[in-house]
Amino acid sequence: MRKRNIFECIILSILTCGIYFLVWMVMLSNDLSRYDGEPEEGGLELVYSIVTCGIYYIYWNYKMGKRLYRLNGINNRASDNSVVYLILSIFGFGIISQSIMQSEINDL
User: Fold this and answer.
1) What pLDDT does residue 76 have?
2) pLDDT tens digit string along 93-104?
3) Cβ atoms of 67 and 38 closer than 8 Å
4) Rounded CA gap, 65 and 79, in Å?
5) 3-state secondary structure of 8
6) Half-sphere exposure (CA, 13 Å, Cβ side) for 95?
7) Contact 70, 78 (CB under 8 A)
8) Which of 43, 16, 10, 47 is nearest to 29 (CA)?
9) Cα–Cα dist 48/44, whole Å
10) Angle, nearest 10°, between helix axes 55-74 and 82-90?
């Protein structure tokens, strides 16, 4: 997995009016799938998020939290942030939840 600078991802998301934010979502999903040995479905999850007008994105945050919890549990560093990601995404702070996810992925 590639470690990404969280600050750069946030700045690029702002400068591109959210386009990089969507790309970052796909990269996070694909990185975690690659690490876990699952098929990469980040692009499909992006399509689901767009088609459902963001409802799937809220679920995606929760799902990613559970996946990170499971993978971090293997390394005995378990902390389940899935509800935090869910609440942040419901209130429009998805960039914060993705930043926390990226930090956890960088630590894997």
Assistant:
1) 62
2) 999 999 999 998
3) no
4) 9
5) helix
6) 14
7) no
8) 43
9) 6
10) 160
pLDDT digits (tens, 9 = 90+) for 5-34: 999 999 999 999 999 999 999 999 999 888
Mapped to the 3 state alphabet, what secondary structure does 44-104 carry? HHHHHHHHCCCHHHHHHHHHHHHHHHHHHHHCCCCCCCHHHHHHHHHCCCHHHHHHHHHHH
Tokens of 31: 């990185």
The pTM (predicted TM-score) of the whole model is 0.88
75 burial level (CB within 10 Å; 0-12, 13-18, 19+)? exposed
The pLDDT tens digits of the residues spanning 42-101 come to 899 999 999 999 999 999 999 999 998 888 776 666 678 899 999 999 999 999 999 999
Burial of 9 (0-12, 13-18, 19+ CB in 10 A): buried
